[in-house]
Amino acid sequence: MQADSSSETKFAGQTQTAKAMAKFGDDDGISDTFANMAVGECDSKRTSYIPWDEYFMAVSFLTAMRSKDPCSQVGACIVNNEKKIVGIGYNGMPRDCSDDILPWNKESEDPLCTKYMYVCHAEMNAIMNKNSSDLSDCTIYVALFPCNECAKLIIQAGIREVIFFSDKHSQKPVTIASKRLLDMAEILYRQYVPTQKTIKIDFGVTYQAEQSDASNQNGSISPATPRDINKKRDDYLAWGEYFMAMAFLSALRRACIVNSESKIVGIGYNGMPRGCSDDKLPWGKSSFDPLKTKYMYVCHAEVNAIMNKNCADVAGCTIYVALFPCNECAKVIIQSGIKKVIYFSDKYKGKPSTIASKKMLDLAKITYCQYNLPCRKVIIDFEAIDWNIASQLPPSS
Ligand SMILES: [Zn+2]
Ligand SMILES: [Zn+2]
């Protein structure tokens, strides 16, 4: 069933600029940074936060940048009723099948020498990588309308809705068959139209004051970089870069927990506690009355990422955070069993809350290190989609 897409949430008062903007609280670990979003007044709730649909579609595009396919990078993101991400995938060779050995070619006289025989689509991988017990009533966000093979998996997984970006292969039999199946199974599908053309995750701009040397020098990564189409691409996002970008993509949503299999098991952002209206609580940073400041009420991203986990526990996991965790978050990190903290900035290192945090993390033998990979700009370019998914499907089908 085709659902109406005109009821999409729109940004309230958002600017169309794709420039990364940053703003830090000056007296705490709470930052109001977001690549690409306008920053609202400090004393009121931001109204320019990224809508959920846009966020999850951006996650799927960001994930596509992990793909090694030279021609076609597709990502998928599965979200449950509580808006938690429960599965992420990108197109690639099956687990344990070396992508250096299998072919990436699109064309060959021998079908066994093309990638089509071997590549798993993003939808399949997102479903198989799920870290919740089942996917019933979930929504899947995909760049390209799912093919019939993926539609079978989506239906059997119990997914209820498909949100796609492009339907460029709508005339191909694989897409027609896919819609036939989805219609019969009464699975909703609708096209997503982004409110902005690109989202830039620019570590360099965001943390310029602190990290100006490490950043900015390494060029940028975006899907539309020309390359040899018969070879595995080598400029795909590294895991660390991907997880850190995921933390940054989340705007105020700024912590990302990853398990030993490189699966994201929790994402969190700063916000008022569940069920506590963020219209009624204060967002101010300074007041004579501490009850009129946000500090009494806001939950930090680390705490929320841990509480929002979608697996039984986060023992042994790694948490990626924009800013070194405060002492309150360190307590929760330690109690949760997380074993490693990777932070981007330590700008409050002189403050008691950071010193106490390190003292406890040291005692608990939790390792922490500053993210030191090259910080390329990550550009999520919704407009590059036609190029980006040029050859997900074999030419003949
Ligand atoms: Zn497919
Ligand atoms: Zn904290």
From TrEMBL:
Molecular function, one GO term: dCMP deaminase activity
KW Secreted (keyword) present: no
InterPro entries: APOBEC/CMP_deaminase_Zn-bd (IPR016192), CMP_dCMP_dom (IPR002125), Cytidine_deaminase-like (IPR016193), dCMP_deaminase-rel (IPR015517), Deoxycytidylate_deaminase_dom (IPR035105)
Names of the cofactor(s): Zn(2+)
UniProt domain CMP/dCMP-type deaminase: residue ranges: 51-189, 238-371
Record function comment: Supplies the nucleotide substrate for thymidylate synthetase.
Family (UniProt): Belongs to the cytidine and deoxycytidylate deaminase family.
Name of the protein: Probable deoxycytidylate deaminase
The organism's taxonomic lineage, starting at the top: Eukaryota, Metazoa, Ecdysozoa, Arthropoda, Crustacea
